[in-house]
Design a protein that fits this description.
GH; 19 strands; TIM Barrel; binds ligand PGI; globular; three-stranded mixed β-sheet; 15 helices; alpha/beta; 18% strand; eight-stranded parallel beta barrel; 486 residues
């Protein structure tokens, strides 16, 4: 038996755009809602045409999903509070004290009691109260609660992605390209900390800022808003996201003493061959920049005291590896992802390393989570949670093996001293996989979107065995070794 500590958490998670909608009146409009409804995006195939309002309906069915989670022995949840639900109207006019340095960086935002009163008058208080009901229901069941303040969806008064793509960021509400987003996000963070902070055991400010900028401004075929190819925009959005984390960290701490983290998608980067190490170094550099800033204050070669010391824990979203090689184009060395490995495999296929791949074409590579954890521990020595790990596997072919083989690698890292405190499987239930729609099914539990009924997949029972015992029992040890196609 491979035992985890008795206080190690096994959890589930929810995201407004992906889980909440599906019952009448549960809709909320955000930049992602507009993006997924855009006729041109659907006609071009950039998005699947599946709509969030046809989703699992967690907004009204949360009691059922919480009891399923408890049935499976899960004792933690990270739950997203949707900014666009809480503030459907602009908050620009709410006066707060903003300090900028001579570089125009937002170094302080103070949201005082009178600003909170103004925000309360602007907010959709029915939404806030409904979230209080959701969070309280989970807490009453004895679960640990982590509140996530941003999982990619922004209010449309801050970001109109179609207009950005068509008219350019200077003639449209441009989201993270606009410095005001740092200030408005800070107001939202302060408001939620004040309104719901009594329920939170932990916080994190945002999910995967790296994905927001690379999928939004570089890999524009990924189906992420605004699909505006521009490296300057990528850098600007990245800087504002880093500042937004620090300003939100301060805003939360003004109303809550609980730990505040940052969640990021870490791929296990590997060089294709000798000489490609530089490509790995460059790819890691982008990931590290989002943590060197809040931990060390380092951003683009300068140290900023307004960023430093603003992180209490790291959330690791791990799915697979990425094999990289150096590419020389027009004299500029850059990074190329090698097909046949990691995220770049054939859906349902076999990788170049004889590993099975998910319905999404992601190679099952459990060793990578060990490598990522060891690397982050060496660099930051900060408490960590695996905040996402899972597989698109509608027929549940690999999910049991996936879960146990990854947990084994996480346990290996813990045996070597890495402070990992929990594991949130992605995901408890099938949900809307962004541009890919409902065809990618990540759930331990199948969702019939017509009836909203939930059905356990066999792997849910494997998850239950592990979560209830906080161990990999002997009768599951055959799943420890990484899956391979012989
Ligand atoms: O794709 C599965 C999940 C999403 O449903 C979550 O909302 C998101 O946090 C998340 N991140 C990743 C890894 C990074 C990634 C994001 C988008 C597309 C491909 C890879 C996988 N996932």
């Amino acid at each position: 038996m491979i035992k985890f500590p008795s206080d190690f958490r096994f959890g589930f998670s929810t995201v407004g755009t992906q889980h909440e909608m599906g019952t009448p009146g549960s809709e909320f409009v955000s930049d992602w809602y507009v993006w997924l409804h855009d006729p041109e995006n659907i006609a071009s195939g950039l998005v699947s045409g599946d709509l969030p309002e046809h989703g699992p309906g967690y907004w009204d069915l949360y009691k059922q999903d919480h009891s399923i989670a408890r049935d499976l022995g899960l004792d933690a949840a990270w739950i997203t509070i949707e900014w666009a639900r809480v503030f459907p109207k602009p908050t620009f006019d709410v006066k707060v004290k903003v300090d900028e340095d001579d570089g125009g960086n937002v170094v302080d935002v103070e949201v005082n009691e009178s600003a909170l009163e103004e925000l309360r008058r602007l907010a959709d208080l029915n939404a806030v109260n409904h979230y209080r009901g959701i969070l309280s229901d989970w807490k009453e069941r004895g679960g640990l609660l982590v509140i996530n303040l941003y999982h990619w969806a922004m209010p449309t008064w801050l970001h109109d992605p179609i207009a950005v793509r068509k008219n350019g960021p200077d003639r449209a509400p441009s989201g993270w390209l606009d410095k005001r987003s740092v200030i408005e996000f800070t107001k939202f963070a302060a408001f939620i900390a004040h309104e719901l902070g009594d329920l939170a055991d932990m916080w994190y400010t945002m999910n995967e800022p790296g994905v927001v900028i690379t999928e939004g401004y570089l890999y524009v075929k990924s189906g992420f808003p605004p699909g505006y190819l521009d490296l300057n925009s990528l850098a600007t959005a990245g800087k504002h996201l880093i500042e937004a984390h620090a300003r939100a960290y301060d805003a939360i701490k003004a109303y809550s003493r609980k730990p505040v983290g940052l969640v990021y998608s870490f791929a296990d980067y590997q060089p294709l061959r000798q000489g490609d190490e530089e490509a790995v170094k460059e790819a890691k550099g982008l990931d590290y920049s989002f943590f060197d800033a809040p931990i060390k204050g380092e951003l683009m070669g300068v140290t900023r005291d307004d960023l430093k010391g603003r992180l209490d824990w790291i959330g690791v979203n791990y799915y697979t590896r990425a094999v990289l090689r150096r590419r020389q184009d027009a004299g500029r060395a850059s990074v190329a992802v090698v097909d046949g490995f990691g995220y770049s495999c054939e859906p349902g296929g076999v990788s170049n390393d004889r590993r099975p791949c998910s319905d999404f074409g992601w190679e099952i590579y459990p060793e990578g989570v060990y490598n990522v954890l060891m690397d982050l521990w060496r660099r930051y020595r900060m408490p960590m949670y695996i905040t996402e790990n899972g597989i698109a596997d509608e027929h549940d072919k690999w999910r049991s093996w996936f879960i146990v083989s990854h947990l084994y690698q996480i346990h290996r890292a813990m045996e070597e001293g890495v402070d990992v405190r929990g594991y949130f499987h992605w995901n408890l239930i099938d949900n809307l996989e962004w541009a890919a729609g409902y065809r990618m099914r990540f759930g331990l539990v199948y969702v019939d979107y017509a009836t909203k009924r939930r059905y356990f997949r066999p792997s849910a029972l494997v998850m239950r065995e592990v979560a209830k015992q906080k161990a990999i029992p002997d009768y599951l040890e055959h799943y420890i070794k990484p899956p391979r196609i012989e």
